[in-house]
Structures are given as structure tokens and as C-alpha cells.
Amino acid sequence: MEPEKSRWDLTLLFKNEESVNKSLHELLKIKNDISIYRGKLAGKEALLDLLRVYERESRQLEKLYSYAHLYYDADLASSKASDLFQRAHNLFLDFRTKTAWMRPELLSLDASYLVEVSSDPEFAPYKFMLEKIVREKKHTLSEREEEIFSEMQSPLEVSQNVFTLLNNVNFVFNDATDSDGQKHPLTHATRIMHRNSADPKLRQTSYTNYLQRYSDHGHAMSELLAGHVRGQWVQAKLRGFSSCLEARLYSDKIDSAIYKTLLEEVHVGLPVLHDYIALKKKMLGKDELYPYDLAAPLGVANEKRYSYDEAVEIVLEALSPMDEEYRAVLKDGLCNKRWVDRYERPGKKSGAYSWIGYDAEPYILLNFAGDIRNVLTLAHEAGHSMHTYLSKKQTYFDATYPIFLGEIASTFHENMVNDYLIRHAESRSEKIALLISKLEDMRNTFFRQAMFAEFELWMHEEIEKRETLSFDTMRSRYRALNKAYFGPALTTDDLLGAEYLIVPHFYRDYYVYQYATGIAASTWLYKRVKEDALFLPRYRAFLESGGKMYPTDLLETLGLDLKSKQPYREFVAEFKMYVDLLKKELDEKPSV
Questions:
Q1: Is the separation of the CB atoms in 179 and 200 below 8 Å?
Q2: Residue 143 pLDDT > 90
Q3: Does the pLDDT value for residue 301 go beyond 70?
Q4: Is 166:157 a contact under the CB 8 Å cutoff?
Q5: I want to staple 97 with a disulfide (CB 3.0 to 4.6 A). Which of 150, 464, 484, 549 is the partner?
Q6: Contact 355, 70 (CB under 8 A)
Q7: pLDDT tens, 479-526?
Q8: Whole-angstrom Cα distance, residue 374 to residue 305?
Q9: Is 363 in a helix, a strand, or coil?
Q10: Helix intervals (H) in 42-187
Q11: Does 436 score more than 90 pLDDT?
């Protein structure tokens, strides 16, 4: 039986079931607490009282929702967990509906009045929130329309909910088979292990059996995704946006030029990726390089195994340049306070994430299986968790940082761990394996996520042009993008075209591009840290800033402009440097 210490400790949120039920009942009273201020916000005292009540009840609801969500993700097949999550989710939707009047009423007030009150020291915890509300005035609807929008959210989430159930509960995969005919269980987690296997038969059958399950349901799953995109476009139009991209980026004041510059610069850098893919093909001695060969060990199997405790030790050692308090907090969370639900089990949510909640620990979901990728995933999620932990130096509404910033902290950790592992390689073969791991990390986080971002932009633009998205058109476009990104050395197949069906982030609009901008930004920042250790306190101050400023404004305080070509070109140059290091270890001539 899995030991208790390997699962997260949710008693840090609620001590027992009785306290959970008490919170549920208290939250049912929210309507009266909030509604008594309706129509009274022109009075400064009433406005301040409302904001304080709203903050208190938002935190109470967030805490309950955190517990219910984490409890459910630990066992998606549990009817008890499902019921609690649904009740908490309904409370969240109900709260959003009952407070939908606040934004329109605030926006009905003179902007000068809101500016005046926000300058009052008593309003300091709400100043930036009020500023953002005023900025969104032209895209905020009437009170009744906002209530309707709020009521619409539950049915609009059906596509994502169905995908989640299919992906995590309903889909069971046929076993993969190795070259000796031995069968291997195929799950979301073991697929990643099989993908890195030195056995080509195991890689091929894992790839085929995994994607075939999705392809068999390709028409239905494509309609789920297309329906989600159509729903987002309807909402964007009704709010007066010209595109889904504009609607998604507006709240964080992110210039769409960042998205476009990213894609343009990725294409400029594709010859370097093509060179790397051609090198992989040569190292594998393949006449044809197939998608299931992309993560194959190049000449030496990277089969070193790590326990969870060993992974934690590596991460903490790699982070030694960070200050002592930073590392002590992280060690306590990973080892003692049980932030982490560590291992895969039936019914548990697949993948990995770090939870964001002001009154919750920064919990981490893993499906740790012991390979090098799992070590780096731990580092990645720990980066998120430390960002969340440090951001709590801000007040409640200023603490939550946008995802646009979150992917910087996570990939900054990965950069440090990769560098540490390469420096401490015990043999040439291990160093080669680690260089490949580093290159794969860079390829997957920058180039692959940019490819996803380009596909996502295409999907939305097709809907915005009133074109039809179908399984056939979507898999054709996705396969074409793979050809463009990976170059002539890769032989694509029909099954690869269905890979877009497995990407859960497509149900979180314009999310994936932030992985690419995040790693470009973290690479830029890490380079400055390596050049000047005095930059580290500035980086920590960035983490502690949470969401108190618009994200690009905050990055500019560090001298980083993601609208410029520089950070992307520096990233591609670093990728090329690692390709050349790999060639050197292999006695290959570096590319010009």
C-alpha cells in the first residue's frame, strides 16, 4: 500500500470532513453578505466594506475549492470526491453569478471617483484590482448581460469536462510490446517511459496503441474541441473583441505582437532544429526517422533510475545558488509538509501541476516514475510552487500571478537542474544522455509548444472566418505543421495527425504559447544570473511581486522585452550551443 507520506496532506487546508462541511454551509450565506451593498457603491465607506467582504468570502471559497479540487484529482473515480468537487464548483459558479453585478456597477461610477478612492491608503489592497476593472470598462456588459455570461460558464465547460473524463477515466490503452514479445502496461505515465526506451518495437507499439485510442474517437473528440473554440469566439464577439487572441491577452495587457513575434522567430530558428533532428536520425542509424523515434536514446540508453528522495536531493543541490531560506522552504515542502502527491495510481489525474491558492500550500501533483524526465518535472513544478509561496508577500488580490509569468519560474528551475546534471555527469555516455535530455527539454518547451500555439491560432482563426473544423482538416493541418517544424529528416504518418487530440491545454485558450515565451524569458534571465550573481536578488524580488503589476511591465523592470526578437534569438543560439556540445562529445563537426 502506498505510504501516507507520498500523498499530499490536505489536513493543512481542513482538519477533517466536519470542517469541510461547515465551510460549505457558511458559503451558502454569501448572497446576503454581498447583495446588501448593491446600489450603494457611490459611497466610499460602503465600497470599502464591500471589497473587504468580497475578499474574505473569495478567500473562503478559494480554500474550499482548493481542497475539493485536490481531493478529486487524487481519485477521479471516487463518487464522494466527485460530489464534493461538483458542490464546490457549483458554489464557485454561484458566487460568480451573485457577484456579477459588482463590475458593471463599479464601471457605472465616474473613473475619477475610482481613481480618487484607490489613492486612499485604506484601499491599497484593492488599488491594482480597481485599475484593471476600469481598464476593462469597454468590454464589460450590462449587469443583466454579465449575469447571463456567468450562467453560461457551466455549459460552456462541458467540452473540457468530457475530454477530462475520457482522457483520465474512460480511455484504457492496449499494452505495448517489446522486441522480445513481452507486454508492458500502457498508461499516460508509462507512455513517456516507453517513448524514451532503447527498444524500437516498444516505442512503436506504445506510440501506435496510445494515439490509436484517440484516433478511433477522432471525429467526436474533434467536435468537442471545435465546440470549445466556437464557444470562446461567441464570448469574445459579445464582449467587443476582434479575435479570441485579443480577448485572451487583454486582461493581462499583453501585446499580441509578443505572440506573433514568437511564431516568427521560431520559424527563423527552425534550421537549427532541423539540424538537430537530422543528427538524431544519423545517430540512430535510421533510414527513416518516425515520430516515435524522436525521444529515443541516441546511442546510449538513458535508463538511470531515481527515487523520489534522490530527485529532491538533486533539485535542492542544483538550486544552491538560490538563497538559504528559499531552499529550506522548498525542502520542507517536498519532504516534510507533504506538498506532493507523488506516484501514479488508478483513478488519479494524469500529468503534473502546482496548485495556486492564497490560503493553501502550493501543492504539487506528480506521477513520478523514476526517470530523468520525472526529476525535471519535479524541478519544474517546484518552480511554480516557490513562485506561489513567495508571491504571498503581496496582499490577496495582488498575489496571484498570471500564467504568463508562472512559466518563467518553472523553466528557470529546469535550467538550473539541467546545468547541474550535465556538470556532474560521471561518464561520457551519461553526459551525452544529459545533453540530449537538455535538448529535448528545450525542443519540447520552446519549439513544440510554439507549434501547438501556431495550431491553436489557426483553429481560432478558422472559426473566426466561419470555416469548418473537422477531424480531417485538423489532422491534416497538424501533420503539415509537424513536417514544417521537424524538417525533412522526420517521416510523418497519418497517426501523428491525431496527436492534437491528446493536448488538454487546447481547452485553456492560448495557454501553450506561454511555455515558449516562459522558457525564452527564463533562459534570458538565467544567462544574466550566471553573468552576475547580484542579479539573483532582482530575480527573487520578481518572484515576490506576484501579480502586483501587469506582467510585461514587471518583466521590463528586469530589462526584458518579449516583444523584441532578442530573447528568442538568444534561446535559439543557446539551443545551437547545446547541439554543438553534443556533436563535440560525439566527435561530430559543429554546424556553421
A1: yes
A2: no
A3: no
A4: no
A5: 150
A6: yes
A7: 999 999 999 999 999 999 999 999 999 999 999 999 999 999 999 999
A8: 10
A9: coil
A10: 44-73, 79-98, 102-107, 111-118, 127-135, 143-156, 158-165
A11: no
Q: How far apart are CA 589 and CA 275, in angstroms?
A: 12
Cα 149 from Cα 142, distance rounded (Å): 10
Contact of 583 with 590, CB cutoff 8 Å: yes
4-135+143-152 has CATH 1.20.1110.10 classification = no
pTM, rounded to two decimals: 0.86
Query: What is the C-alpha separation between 119 and 195, in angstroms, rounded?
Result: 56
Give 232-274 as a DSSP string: HHHHHHHTT-SSHHHHHHHTTT--HHHHHHHHHHHHHHHHHHH
Q: Which DSSP letter does residue 184 get?
A: E
494 Cβ partners below 8 Å, 6+ apart?
475, 479
Q: How many Cβ atoms from other residues are within 10 Å of residue 573's Cβ?
A: 12
For 557, residues 6+ apart whose C-beta sits below 8 A from its C-beta are 542, 549
Mean pLDDT taken over the chain: 93
Which triple of cell numbers denotes residue 479? 501533420
Write the pLDDT tens digit of every residue in 193-234: 899 898 999 999 999 999 999 999 999 999 999 999 999 999
* Three-class HEC string of 110-145: CHHHHHHHHCCHHHHHHHHHHHHHHHCHHHCCCHHH
Number of residues that this document lists for the chain: 592
Which cell numbers in the block locate residue 389? 509561496
CA distance 383 to 28: 36
- Under 8 Å between Cβ of 526 and 416: yes
pLDDT at 51: 96
What span, in angstroms and rounded, lies between the C-alpha atoms of 15 and 279? 55
18 is catalytic: no
Sketch the domain layout of the chain as residue ranges: 4-135+143-152
Question: What per-residue confidence (pLDDT) applies to 592?
Answer: 46
Cell, residue 117 = 478612492
Distance (Å, whole) CA 276 – CA 295:
12
Q: Which of 265, 381, 407, 499 is catalytic?
A: 381
Q: What angle do CA 89, 70, 452 make, to 5 degrees?
A: 85
In this prediction, residue 35 carries a pLDDT of: 87
